[in-house]
Structure formats: structure tokens, C-alpha cells
Inverse folding.
């Protein structure tokens, strides 16, 4: 059994146990969260739109994606024309022009947004769509990744991720190109909580 | 203050003026500097090539030569680093411990021990400072661009005490020159290429004199400068601090 | 076998291109500096990351078993592979069981290390690398030259030519945007047709049994979520105790790698998709032996950011292929001697020991100190060239004897002063290759001191 061999080799070779360091709180002033977050999303190639009421969302979606023929949304406020619950084969989402999903939490230091499988509607949706919008409550901003991981539960669903911008690459001569394999654009819609 | 003066082998043989400048500078600053005549080398050439065992006799010779001194000052960050860091393979007797903790690079000694705050020297030239790696990252004579710490440089602080000096800002302030001891001979192509890159940086900033805390880097760079007939001079920092004319 | 020095010399023959390569990587190093200097607690984070990894290595068996148990609980199949061959046959076995003929892969240095692509190709399975850089070199039939930017050694015109031939792009087109779009269209088809997806693993969380993969392109997720079968291959050193530790590592990884504050996608896979299957292959392949090498074990802390390559003045001027191993640069030079001391004995010497690699390393691996130590071990094992070995023995004899040293120095100075140029500068004088010798003075410092201080 390879497992037994590997574990035995590790036991034989590992160093004496050292203590696990504890992570101190690294924070900065709460007032800076929103402007920092916006700056970082924009630096990552995304854009930020501030909305004030859920009623604005359908109109916002049409302004954001004027040419989109197929829109998929995991939010009840935006209908779209794909019923995500009916999608069995993920390949069927290939024609999606634009998708709107919900974000649970945004991180000011890097503009990353956490979304679980449930927020995405479908695991592949944020990637396969040509354009992506994430609706996030500004109340759900945190300073940094330490705070983010203390708030989220990474295994609440089978899949979850941080998204920090549109898909990009610099693999050809270090030239930055937006729109590699995933979504070509990212819009973050900041919508204050109503409850 | 009595100090033991260690003049590294290649400075002794090829750049006596650097040894002289170091000695004069220490004397001017009120130190009684003694040069034990039996000294040779710190043993780094063998050790960096993987032959630490062949260096052990040299290590012991170094300890025997310098164990009488509380401060052992040398115009080389690299040799200082070697003694401090790599003399761990010989038995750590009281003498060995004393020498390892007492050895100091010249800049370190001036900056940290003598706490020199003024110098009677003038050097009205455009100077480029090459941050020799062992001094910079081994002895932490400066912050280096890699680490996120308050920027500082002991060599720069000392050079700023010299009247008329104009220190230039380089595009890559602390990239290696490519000397690397026997690396210069084992990988001559890349070693020379690295040196050329450093010289080009200094040249593009209009540097007249290229200085460093380690003459070994300067020996390598000077070799390239002379081969390529560039109009740049090299001077060890001791020479500039001692007010040597160009 | 050609040594690093020879391959570096080849690389430098086209000096303009070497300069271009150097600049391209220095640009990434500069971006890294800018990003890290924006994080005041950077040095504390490095310290933490190093400490977390150290602790994990000291209890690696426990964390791996915890990881396996939790992953199984999540409905994931976990496999263990002692070596590359076993890894490849496990992956092949899973693919056979699902009748897979088309596999998409996202970047995994581990599968490069195992030679998985070649193995599967021999067994009739199409493997498509989906990271743009990886796809480029796959189409070109070359190994990666960098662990984060696999095609950094290629010019856009060369990529253009390659894509013209393989993807039918316009002849002469070399705009990165155009070429990336062409790759996107090509790879979309591959993603949609794939029956299985395989990824590497950046971090594996013991406490939750999940794996984390970081990409900028989104290729790992395109593959994983479209194909019914997902496989993740990980080295045993990828495990970390808890999700909260990702806070430290995600802050360090992308900033060190490319100067981004975080990768665009940081994906956490815990359970298979509805109707899908998820497998994790845990691979040793020499790592547990490395754990036993006291002075070298902390190379296992590496999170594969590539910062040591970008900063290395030798890597930048010799290219990744000059190292002759999947993982090039400083980190590769301390990992390879553990694989074969003889075969890779020249790599620890491909360094000036400048120490920049250790200072950029986000997990504080003492890379340059390990290079120094490997040199000692290589010499002890008898893998130094004879000339070098004898030369150092003689140097050691001379330098321990003041009289010999004095006489030898005098002779050398005399020779440089008096000998004709052709005798000094020839193929035997490697110093003279591009450099002049110092102009030796009449008297040494020792002689001067004797005259001017002792006699006075």
C-alpha cells in the first residue's frame, strides 16, 4: 500500500513538532473599505456600479449588457432567459452572453468577491459566460483575506470561489490581455441591504 | 580603540591602496589599527566551491591570527560574512566565538561602532554605489529592495558624509554584479554578462566613479570596464571615505 | 550532458534576446516589489507562512490523514502514489474506468514532473493543456521554461507563427490580444468536448478535505465544471491545517508571483458536482525523502510562486531551459540535487549566492544557504570536476601558510605584469573571457605595511 509507505516514510523523516503560529488581526480603518475596494476592483480590470434599490437591477442589467441575447441570473430580481434549475448538462450554458450572480462578501485589499456554488446558480456559470456581473452588499466588505476567511465557510457548499476581476492572461510576452478562458468583463453592482 | 586589521588576500595582492585607505581612515578616526603580518585569507574561495574541508586549515589560521582582538575590521562585507556565517563547521572554542562575533566590515564598524557622523573628506564626483550582495543581504548593511522594511543603507549614509559627492540613483539598485567568487570562472559568460548589465546601469546615469564595499565586485567590474574601454573608474568605499583624489 | 554554464553561454549568444528575456522577468520582479511594498505587514506574513508550513511539515502524516478522511467524507475518492509512475497509472486507471479519451488539464507542475502528458498520449488519450502559456509550449513540443509563465522565453512573433501553423491564425499576426482570442476559441471547443479535467493543487485543507486552485484565466474551472470527472493531483507538501491559513497564503502567492493582489480566481473544491465524480491523487515522488534531509527539508515549504526565478540574475540571463529540470531557477537548483546528486551537481553552482532569492521568497526558504550546503555535499560525494577539486585543495594548502601565500602572490603579480598578453589571455584563462586582469602593483599591502608602519 503506497499510503502506508508514504505515511511511514513521513513519520520516519519528519522534524520534531513545531508550534502552529497564530495569525494576528491585520486591519485598517473601516472608513477606507469602500474606496479601497472600488480601487482594487478597477485595478483588476472590473468596474463598480452603485445601486440603491433592488428595483434598479433589471434596468441596470440591460444597460450593462445591451447586446446580450442570453442572460442567466441567479438572482430573483433579474429574470434573464435561462432557467438555471433546468440546466442539467453544463455545456448547455455555453451560449450565455451575460450572467448575474450574487456575491457574499468583498475584500477591500484585493477586490476579490466570495461566491459559493449556491450564489453562482451553476458552478460553471461565472466562467462560461461572456460577461459577468456580481451583486454585492457594501455592508459585506471586509478588510483583508484573514477577515474574509473568518467570515466565510469554505465548505458550506461543494464549490466556492473568490473572483477578483475578468479572466486575464499575460502569457504572451507579459502583455496583459483581458478575456482569456473565462468571462471577458466583470461588473460589481453594489446594492445596500434592504433588510 | 585597538582593532585588528584584516586585508583580504586579493586586496593585499592587487589593491594595496584599498588596504592603505582603510588603515589611514581608521587611524584618522582615532583607532589603533594593527595588521597581524601572518594573515592570509578567510577561506571563502574553497568553501564557496564546495570544498569547505579544504578551507578548515585556513579557518584555523585566521582564528589564530586574530583571536587577540576584540574588533577585527576588514574592507570586505563578503569576508566578514564568511567568517561570521560559515566558521560554524569548526569547533566553537572561545577563540572561534570571539573572532566570529568580533569581525566587522569596515562600513559596519564605522557606522555602528564608531558611529561616525562627520568625515574630513571631499570627493566632488558623480558616484554610483554598487551594493555588494554579501554585505547587503548577508550582513544587512542595507535594507535591499526585496524586503518590506524601512529603507536604509549604511554605505550610503557614510558616503553622504563626504563633501561634494553626488550619489546617483540606479535603475536596479541592488542587483548582483556577477562576480560570485569562483562563479566568475565557472560561468564566465553569464558572469561577464551580469557585470555588463550593472555597468550599463551606472553608465546611463552618468556615473564617473563606481564604488562598493567589496573590492571583489569591483575587480570583476573593472576588468570588464577596462576590456570595453569604458570611461568609468572604480574605487573602494574606503578610498572615497578617506578622501582619495580621483 | 551539457552543463548549465554551456547552456547559459548558448542562451547568451543572442545578446539582444537575452536582454529582452532579462527585462521581461525584471518587469515582473518590479511589479512584485510594488505589490509587496503596499502591504506593511509583508515581513510578518512571510514569517507566518514559513511557520505554518514548518508546523505542517512537522506533523505532515497527521494532516494528510486528516485531509484524506475529510475528503472521503465529502464524497471524494483519494489515491496515494509513491512515485511518478504510480501517479500516472492511477490517473490512467480512473480515465479508463470512465472511458475517457479527451482530458483537459490546467497548470500542474506535478504532472510535468511525472511526465503525465507523454504517458497518457502513449495510451491513446488526448491531453490538452489549457493555460495559455502551457498550451503554447505544448503545441510547440517544449517543456515550460518558468513555473508561472511557461512560455516567457518565446516572442509574440514565434507564438504567432506557431498559432498560424496549429490554429490557423493569420500569417504574420502577432498581436497578443488577437492570439489570445484565437486560443480562447480553440480551447472553448476543447473544454466543451472534454470528458475529464485534471488540475494541480495550490493548497489542500486538512480540516475540510478540500483543495484550492488559483488561476487568472479561469481555465481550471472551465475544465472542472464542464467535465463530469474531475481529478486533482497534489504533492504531499500541499496540505495546510485550516482554511484560515489560506488568508496568509493567498495574500502572499499572487503578489509574489505576478504582483497582483490576488489571482483572479481562487477556487475551493470540496465535493463533486451533482452526478459527477471527484478524485484526489496524493503524490510523494521523493518528497518524503526530502523531508528527511535536515538542511534541505524546508524547500518543501515552496508554494511555487516563481519569485525566485524572476529575481535571479542568472535565471533571467540563461532562461529556464538551461536548468534541464521541470522546476528551474534557484528553487529548482535546491530541489534537483535531492533527485540525483550526480545528474544535477552543476545546478547549485549556477548561482553567485547573492541571496536575492531568499529575500523574495514568500515562505522564507533559505535558498542561497541551501545552494551553499549542496555544494559541500556535492564535493563530499565526489561530483566536482577534478580540476576544481585539485585547485581548491592547493588553494587550501597555500592559504593556510603565510609564507607560501606571500611567495605565490608575488609570483602571480610578477606573471601578470611581465608575461606577454597571449600567454595571459588564452582559452585557459576563463577570467580573461570578457575581462581584463587587475593591474598588479609592485608591492602588496603587506609589503607596504612593513615598510611604512613597522619599520617607522
Amino acid at each position: 500500500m503506497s499510503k502506508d509507505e508514504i505515511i511511514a516514510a513521513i513519520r520516519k523523516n519528519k522534524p520534531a513538532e513545531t508550534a502552529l503560529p497564530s495569525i494576528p488581526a491585520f486591519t485598517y480603518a473601516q472608513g477606507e473599505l469602500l474606496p479601497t475596494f472600488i480601487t482594487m476592483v478597477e485595478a483588476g480590470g472590473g468596474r463598480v456600479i452603485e445601486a440603491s434599490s433592488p428595483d434598479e437591477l433589471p434596468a441596470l442589467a440591460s444597460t450593462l449588457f445591451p447586446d446580450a441575447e442570453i442572460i442567466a441570473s441567479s438572482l430573483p430580481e433579474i429574470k434573464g432567459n435561462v432557467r438555471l434549475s433546468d440546466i442539467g448538462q453544463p455545456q448547455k450554458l455555453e451560449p450565455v452572453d451575460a450572467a448575474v450572480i450574487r456575491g457574499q462578501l468583498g475584500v477591500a485589499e484585493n477586490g476579490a468577491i466570495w461566491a459559493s456554488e449556491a450564489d453562482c446558480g451553476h458552478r460553471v456559470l461565472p466562467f462560461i459566460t461572456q460577461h459577468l456581473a456580481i451583486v454585492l452588499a457594501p455592508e459585506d466588505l471586509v478588510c483583508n483575506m484573514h477577515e474574509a476567511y473568518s467570515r466565510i465557510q469554505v465548505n458550506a457548499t461543494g464549490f466556492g470561489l473568490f473572483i477578483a476581476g475578468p479572466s486575464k492572461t499575460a502569457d504572451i510576452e507579459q502583455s496583459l490581455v483581458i478575456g482569456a478562458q473565462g468571462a471577458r468583463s466583470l461588473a460589481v453592482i453594489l446594492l445596500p441591504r434592504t433588510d | 580603540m585597538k582593532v585588528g586589521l584584516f586585508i583580504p588576500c586579493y586586496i593585499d595582492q592587487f589593491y594595496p591602496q584599498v588596504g592603505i585607505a582603510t588603515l589611514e581612515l581608521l587611524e584618522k578616526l582615532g583607532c589603533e589599527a594593527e595588521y597581524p603580518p601572518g594573515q592570509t585569507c578567510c577561506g571563502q574561495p574553497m568553501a564557496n566551491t564546495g570544498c569547505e574541508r579544504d578551507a578548515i586549515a585556513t579557518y584555523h589560521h585566521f582564528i589564530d591570527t586574530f583571536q587577540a582582538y576584540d574588533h577585527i575590521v576588514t574592507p570586505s562585507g563578503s569576508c566578514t560574512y564568511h567568517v561570521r556565517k560559515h566558521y560554524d563547521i569548526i569547533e566553537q572554542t572561545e577563540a572561534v566565538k570571539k573572532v566570529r562575533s568580533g569581525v566587522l566590515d569596515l562600513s559596519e564598524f564605522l557606522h555602528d561602532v564608531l558611529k561616525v557622523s562627520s568625515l574630513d573628506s571631499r570627493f566632488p564626483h558623480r558616484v554610483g554605489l554598487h551594493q555588494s550582495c554579501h554585505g547587503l543581504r548577508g550582513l544587512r548593511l542595507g535594507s535591499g529592495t526585496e524586503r518590506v522594511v524601512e529603507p536604509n543603507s549604511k554605505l550610503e549614509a557614510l558616503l553622504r558624509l563626504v563633501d561634494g559627492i553626488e550619489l546617483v540613483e540606479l535603475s536596479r539598485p541592488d542587483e548582483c554584479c556577477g562576480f560570485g567568487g569562483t562563479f566568475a570562472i565557472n560561468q564566465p559568460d553569464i558572469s561577464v554578462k551580469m557585470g555588463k548589465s550593472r555597468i550599463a546601469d551606472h553608465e546611463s546615469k552618468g556615473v564617473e566613479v563606481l564604488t562598493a564595499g567589496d573590492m571583489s565586485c569591483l575587480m570583476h567590474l573593472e576588468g570588464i570596464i577596462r576590456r570595453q574601454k569604458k570611461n568609468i573608474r572604480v574605487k573602494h568605499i574606503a578610498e572615497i571615505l578617506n578622501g582619495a583624489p580621483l | 550532458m551539457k552543463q548549465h554554464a554551456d547552456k547559459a553561454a548558448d542562451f547568451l549568444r543572442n545578446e539582444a534576446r537575452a536582454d529582452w528575456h532579462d527585462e521581461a522577468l525584471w518587469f515582473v520582479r518590479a511589479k512584485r516589489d510594488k505589490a509587496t511594498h503596499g502591504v506593511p505587514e509583508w515581513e510578518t506574513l512571510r514569517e507566518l507562512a514559513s511557520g505554518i508550513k514548518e508546523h505542517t511539515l512537522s506533523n505532515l502524516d497527521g494532516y494528510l490523514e486528516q485531509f484524506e478522511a475529510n475528503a472521503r467524507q465529502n464524497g471524494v475518492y483519494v489515491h496515494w502514489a509513491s512515485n511518478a509512475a504510480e501517479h500516472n497509472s492511477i490517473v490512467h486507471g480512473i480515465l479508463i474506468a470512465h472511458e475517457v479519451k479527451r482530458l483537459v488539464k490546467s497548470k500542474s507542475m506535478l504532472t510535468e514532473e511525472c511526465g503525465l502528458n507523454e504517458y497518457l498520449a502513449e495510451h491513446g488519450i488526448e491531453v490538452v493543456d489549457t493555460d495559455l502559456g502551457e498550451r503554447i509550449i505544448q503545441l510547440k513540443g517544449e517543456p515550460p521554461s518558468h513555473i508561472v509563465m511557461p512560455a516567457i522565453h518565446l516572442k509574440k512573433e514565434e507564438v504567432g507563427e506557431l498559432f498560424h501553423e496549429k490554429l490557423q491564425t493569420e500569417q504574420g499576426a502577432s498581436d497578443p490580444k488577437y492570439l489570445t482570442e484565437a486560443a480562447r476559441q480553440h480551447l472553448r471547443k476543447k473544454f466543451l468536448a472534454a470528458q475529464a479535467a485534471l488540475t494541480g493543487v495550490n493548497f489542500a485543507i486538512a480540516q475540510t478535505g478540500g483543495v484550492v486552485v488559483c488561476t487568472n484565466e479561469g481555465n481550471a474551472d472551465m475544465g472542472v465544471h464542464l467535465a463530469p470527472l474531475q481529478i486533482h493531483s497534489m504533492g504531499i507538501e500541499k496540505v495546510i491545517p485550516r482554511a484560515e491559513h489560506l488568508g496568509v497564503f493567498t495574500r502572499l502567492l499572487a503578489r509574489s508571483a505576478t504582483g497582483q493582489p490576488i489571482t483572479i480566481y481562487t477556487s475551493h473544491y470540496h465535493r463533486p458536482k451533482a452526478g459527477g465524480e471527484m478524485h484526489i491523487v496524493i503524490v510523494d515522488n521523493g518528497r518524503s525523502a526530502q523531508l528527511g534531509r535536515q538542511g534541505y527539508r524546508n524547500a518543501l515549504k515552496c508554494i511555487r510562486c516563481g519569485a525566485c526565478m524572476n529575481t535571479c540574475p542568472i535565471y533571467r540571463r540563461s532562461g529556464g531551459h538551461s536548468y534541464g529540470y521541470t522546476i528551474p531557477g534557484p528553487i529548482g537548483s535546491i530541489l534537483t540535487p535531492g533527485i540525483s546528486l550526480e545528474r544535477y551537481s552543476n545546478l547549485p553552482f549556477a548561482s553567485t549566492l547573492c541571496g536575492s532569492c531568499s529575500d523574495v521568497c514568500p515562505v522564507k526558504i533559505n535558498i542561497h544557504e541551501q545552494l551553499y550546503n549542496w555544494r559541500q555535499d556535492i564535493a563530499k560525494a565526489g561530483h566536482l570536476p577534478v580540476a576544481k577539486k585539485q585547485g581548491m585543495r592547493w588553494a587550501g594548502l597555500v592559504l593556510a601558510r603565510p609564507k607560501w601565500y606571500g611567495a605565490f602572490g608575488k609570483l602571480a603579480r610578477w606573471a601578470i605584469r611581465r608575461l606577454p598578453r597571449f600567454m595571459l589571455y588564452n582559452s585557459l584563462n576563463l577570467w580573461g573571457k570578457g575581462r581584463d586582469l587587475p593591474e598588479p602593483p609592485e608591492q602588496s599591502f603587506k609589503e607596504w605595511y612593513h615598510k611604512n608602519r613597522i619599520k617607522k
The first strand of chain A starts at residue 47 and ends at 50. The helical segments of chain A are 2-13, 33-43, 57-64, 117-120, 125-128, 145-151.
